[in-house]
Amino acid sequence: MAALNWLLEAGADEAVSEVPIDRFSARATPALAPSAQHQPRPAARPNLPLAQIKPTTLAPLASDGFGSAMEIAGGCGSLSDLKKAMERFEGSQLKKLATNTVFADGNPNGGIMLIGEAPGYDEDKAGLPFVGRAGKLLDKMLASIGLDRTRVYIINVMAWRPPDNRNPDPSEVALCIPFLRRHIELASPKILVMLGAVSARHVLGLNDGIMKLRGRWLEYRIGTAMVPVLPTLHPAYLLRQPAHKKLAWRDLQALADKLDALGLPAAAGN
C-alpha cells in the first residue's frame, strides 16, 4: 500500500496503456482512435523551480524490508518514537549483528545537525556516535569555534555497525535511509553539516568526491524550508591526512559565519 500511495503522489495515473508502444523505435507511434484524433491535448504541466521539486526514489513493495522501514519511519511522530522504532526494527541483518542501535548524541534543539557515516567499534559498544578517536577529534574541531555536544546534534547515515567496519551493501544502506530522512525531519535543524562524502551522497544524492563538495554551501528541503548544508572532511579522514586539517579549519570558519548570520552564534554567550 505504501508503494501504491507513493506512485499516486508521484503522478502515476494508469498502470498500462491500451495500445502497445515500442519505445525503442522513433517511428512506432500508436494510432489514435478516430474519436480521439481531434481531442485537444492536455495543457503541459508548468516547470517547477528546482527548490520546489522533492527528490524521489523508487520504492520496493511494502512487503520487503525497505517498505517496512518506510512505513515505520513515517509513523513516528517524535524522536523518542523513532528511537524506539529503530531499536525494535527487525528488517536489517546489520542490526542483528550489531551490539547497539547508535541513534544520536547531543542536543536536538540546538539547531545544528552533524551527519556522519556509520558507527565503528567504539560507537557500537557505547551506543553513541563519534566516541572513538575520530569523535575526540570532532570534539576538538567543534571546540575551535565554541561548540560542544550540548550545542549540536550528531547522527550517522547508518545506525548499525557493519561487521569489521566493512563497507555496507547498497541494500543495507537503503534500509537506513527512511529512518535517516525521518530523523532529519523530526529534529528540523536550522543547518546541516555533512561529515564526509558518504553522508553527502546519501542525504543530498551527490556522488562528487568530498574534496569537490567541501566548503560549498548547498541546500536540503525540510518540510517547506530549504536548509543550508555544508559538506566537510570526516574526522577519520583527517586522522589519516592531517595536512588537510587546514581545509577543515576553513570550513569551520565558514560554519561559524553562517551560524552567526542565522542567529545561532557558534561561541556560547556571543
What this model shows, in words?
The protein is α/β, with parallel strands linked by helices. The chain has one domain (60-261): Uracil-DNA Glycosylase, subunit E, CATH 3.40.470. It is 38% helix and 11% strand. The chain has helices at residues 2-9, 65-74, 79-88, 93-97, 121-126, 133-143, 170-187, 197-204, 210-213, 235-240, 245-261, and strands spanning 105-106, 112-116, 153-156, 191-195, 218-222, 225-232. The protein has a six-stranded mixed beta sheet with strand order 1-3-2-4-6-5. A hairpin with a 2-residue loop joins strand 5 (218-222) and strand 6 (225-232). Helix 2 packs parallel to helix 7 (170-187). The longest helix has 18 residues, at 170-187.
